[in-house]
Amino acid sequence: MSFKDLPLDARPREKLISRGASALADAELLALLLRTGVAGKNVLQLAQQLLERFGGLSGLLHTGAEDLKSVKGMGGSAKRSELIAVLELARRAMGEKLRERAVFDSPDAVKQYLQLHIGTRPYEVFAVVFLDVRHRMIALEEMFRGTLTQTSVYPREVVTRAIHHQAAAVVLAHNHPSGSIEPSRADESLTQTLRAALALVDVRVLDHIIVSTGQSFSMAERGLL
């Protein structure tokens, strides 16, 4: 089943042209990329299934080719390739925005960027956003991986990478696979340890952001830095 099988007022393409892209739901925008559904399921239903399967757009942005292949109707290479290309473009576009302006000119964009990159991982990841003197992003590096409950972070390695990038400041980040974004005492202690280590090489810690699917917590905004 394709768009032509849908009622005229329910077709995403016509709706987009007449009312603009912002009028479309996530599933409708995704359906425009997919173009056709599968036997017994129209394209909008297939789009909704993908969003539910991978936890919305944020989860879909982290989905690889093999994960998509497991969904009925996505086994062919054409649909998967086009969708993966669009998702990668979205990630790169957000990264470019953070490289062009100071991260705290758009704090929500920083949180969204981190959610997209590490928020849906099933294991704990510790990442660092390295910033230049104008607080624009130089690079995002995933530095340490752990289990579902803990990760080992080595301050010396964070300092080494900061020197490598000639960073003036950093934003620390990690995910909580459990879904809770409240910092633990260990999180707060680690933040202060890294802050002291980086201060020795004149690199400021601007924030430590904890993310999970669709959620984020900023220690700086809560006065914990």
Description:
The structure is a single chain. With 225 residues, the protein is α+β, with helices and mostly antiparallel strands. It has two domains: 3-93, DNA polymerase, domain 1, CATH 1.10.150; 102-218, Cytidine Deaminase, domain 2. 44% of the residues lie in helices and 16% in strands. The protein is built from nine helices and five strands; from the N terminus they run αααααααββαβαββ. It has helices spanning 12-19, 26-34, 43-54, 56-60, 65-69, 77-100, 107-118, 155-164, 185-199, and strands at 125-131, 137-145, 169-175, 204-212, 215-218. It has a five-stranded mixed beta sheet with strand order 2-1-3-4-5, sandwiched between helices. α2 (26-34) packs across α3 (43-54) and α8 crosses α9. The N and C termini lie far apart (54 Å).
Helix content: 40-55%
Low-confidence segments: none
Question: Proportion of β residues?
Answer: 15-25%
**What is the total number of structural domains?**
2
CATH architecture verdict of the largest domain: 3-Layer(aba) Sandwich
Q: Quick one: overall form?
A: elongated
Number of strands: 5
Report mean pLDDT, rounded to a whole number.
Answer: 82
Helix and strand content put the structural class at: alpha+beta
